[in-house]
Design a protein that fits this description.
5-stranded mixed β-sheet, Aldehyde Dehydrogenase, Chain A, domain 2, Aldehyde Dehydrogenase, Chain A, domain 1, homodimer
Amino acid sequence: MGASRSFRPYDGTVNGSVEDSTTVEVDAAVAAATAAAPQLAATPPRRRAVWWYTVAQALVAAQDELAALADAETALGTARLEGEVDRAAGQLRFYSDVAAEGSHLGIAVDSATETTPELRRVHQPLGPVAVFGASNFPFAFGSLGHDTASALAAGCPVIVKAHPAHPLLSVRLVELAQDALAAAGAPDGTISTVHGMAAGVALVQHPQVRAVGFTGSQGGGLALWRAANERDVVVPVFAEMGTVNPVVVTAAGASDPARIAAGYVESFTLGSGQFCTKPGLLLVPSGAGVAAAVADRLARTPAPAPLLTRSIAEAAAGGVADMAAAGARVVARVPGTGAGWAVDTTVLTAPAAALTGGSRLLEECFAPVSVVVEYASSEELDGVLSRLQGCLVGAVMTGGESDPDAPRVVAQLATKAGRVAVDTWPTGVALGWAQHHGGPWPATTSPAHTSVGASALARWVRPVVYQSAPAAWLPDAGRPGNPWGVTRCVDGVREPARRAEVDHPAASGSSAS
Amino acid sequence: MGASRSFRPYDGTVNGSVEDSTTVEVDAAVAAATAAAPQLAATPPRRRAVWWYTVAQALVAAQDELAALADAETALGTARLEGEVDRAAGQLRFYSDVAAEGSHLGIAVDSATETTPELRRVHQPLGPVAVFGASNFPFAFGSLGHDTASALAAGCPVIVKAHPAHPLLSVRLVELAQDALAAAGAPDGTISTVHGMAAGVALVQHPQVRAVGFTGSQGGGLALWRAANERDVVVPVFAEMGTVNPVVVTAAGASDPARIAAGYVESFTLGSGQFCTKPGLLLVPSGAGVAAAVADRLARTPAPAPLLTRSIAEAAAGGVADMAAAGARVVARVPGTGAGWAVDTTVLTAPAAALTGGSRLLEECFAPVSVVVEYASSEELDGVLSRLQGCLVGAVMTGGESDPDAPRVVAQLATKAGRVAVDTWPTGVALGWAQHHGGPWPATTSPAHTSVGASALARWVRPVVYQSAPAAWLPDAGRPGNPWGVTRCVDGVREPARRAEVDHPAASGSSAS
């Protein structure tokens, strides 16, 4: 058996290690989840919310400890990480509230007519979900992040595959959740964790695992997607992966190059450039002086924090070299600390003609690395945009509502991205009912789905329609009288949920996010 | 170049033939669809409805001609086929009305707060959709069937891959639709058709084709799904495929074996057993006399009509032989006509122990062939049900609301099927808001989706969220004031659509369905 060693990115020293899970341990985790699934599914979302709110409270109560542990494994800084603990707690509460509203249940009723039967549709939780969290947001997209929180809220037990970038934190987070859930009376097996690459593959292949959530690299996500597609019973893999997110500055939007440069540098260096929404490509009008302003800004920017892992740092250095080989030129660089998984902040520039299909310049470099490209005409800009891969987010910096170029750019970005941001940088994903954090292939394996926002729950359920069934034989959620008080579609007309308080322990006791 | 020969299943004579499409023709069809896509997407659903209603009118106006042509190619009988023309017309109207309600647009608005931006989500039509219709319902699931009608309603152009079982009808149907659409002012390229297996593969691999709808065999559907998964940009394949649909008769439900037998025989022989909802497995209590009653009923049942194609007829004969080799025994048979693609109606029986994973008895035989299995105990019944593949529909025949076994059977069927029917046979799929015609893998490639019912439109769209965008730069559907009057989610609260008449030509001029 192997083990995951936990490294301190600041200096490369070892924090400790966690042994890989055995096959027996993986089977036990899945069996426990399978046993918990029916009780989770049958419990009203307003009642399940008590459990998830309890986990949120436990997170916030352990905020300092968790942030310190995470910083030792990720070098993301305790201030940012403390905020992220609050954010993860807020997510658990948000998805609990969304579940109580019940859109994900898809309740629809067609009343019987003289010629047609009564139909009552109820979406059912899929059962055990395997979650492969991200390295770059150890709380918000980690073991207890969006995938886990939305799956639990939808009524599915979760088996977390711990990320090798922060194995000690993964252990601690799931222990904390298990303790909170046990105290709150949730079934055993509601959440558990496994370690090691073999355990991850075993999870995806396990007959009782019904869906997979993944956040990370294209290589990792597509490998899991292929493994799931080879099962006897194929299950969905919802992988949110990295691609290049473009930001277009229109001619009218380029009037203040220093302001653009300041926003751009702040955005692409956030978290040492390890955001899936990082602007990897800045498209600016020729001659507007944006590239020079970026170089100037970078000259006044401190050294970046080290990257999450040695392999990410190595890939970043290799990526810059590959981009140079693909026709880009380094225009500004901020040397890294030199210690641990250090990296240089690097801005390159390339001619628009170099951005052709298959170019390394159109692939993500997961680091504080970004490319500035000048376009000479709207035709050239359109050409570059049309050759981009699908992405999570595209942004446009404009001259305001009268900007003649902006509507066309917005429309074109909408064909490539899951989110189009106007006069705002792409990093930062607000959590709400309308949010969509997804995008066309290969930004995700399932462009219709989101990993952030109320609709994230939709990934973990499957419709079943009951034809002419007596009320007592229906799942509670779909019975006449709407006992769970959720939103429904009755004979084609949408009914809002009956607003009632979630039965949770005082939410006011925990921080807002 | 090859050609699709059209056969008359009654006697095996040739009706005519249609030449396979060339690569140039496939490219031209996709290019025309691609050109039409923006106009379709930008036209309000209430206005698009005019176009689809016009197609429905044209179908009904040509009802006699179409039914006669279809009968020559399918042997399904003109009475049934005339009704199916009405049904297909009704589907076009239904999906038009559903699009006007607008759930598929997923409009959601999060108002800006002090700390979060305004978000406005709008689902966008995917663009050109390739539809591979079914052979067994040449109108309802054919070239202008559910997949085509729902894709058009959602605002996507459609390229139909003509089914080789009815190539002449496919040509005629698409011509008819094109003529109607041209007269109504819809863009060229809204619908077109291609012929031949190579053209079908080219469609699925074409970079401009954004999604695939398929209804048919597991072999065909999974081949397309694999081909789509090998694209540079993978696209979804929504395949609805054949599996064995179980019907359970509880102890209390078996009190009148003759009634059970009559319903069963009628159901599994409908359309010569060529329904995707055919009951392929009847599970009856030991000693209740149901098998004998079925044999008795079959002795008074006329010869079945021939099957759709020679290959289906050959597969049916082979299937019965394979089932016998897998431990089943023929208990009753009605000889076929002997002419054309004739088939025997066949009922087999097998011990419950023979229904093990991988057995031929757990795979579909697309013909008037079904298997009766007696179970000795509820444990034995549970065991059989747990070993079934995912299926479109399961049914239970009960002793009424006090039946002690029925709730457990309903719950177990819900884990295997997309629809659970109570005291009604599984054949027949009502069209409505709540309907779900789908099911767990391998009944479909996408168990979250349906090919029948209001939610069928959801397959053909993709979310995009606009962050802080001026109203004028948004797609009309998502603008403030809700100009399309569709259902929305505003700050977490569902709003019903503003009910307004669809701007269609007098719907009363066409038959009800």
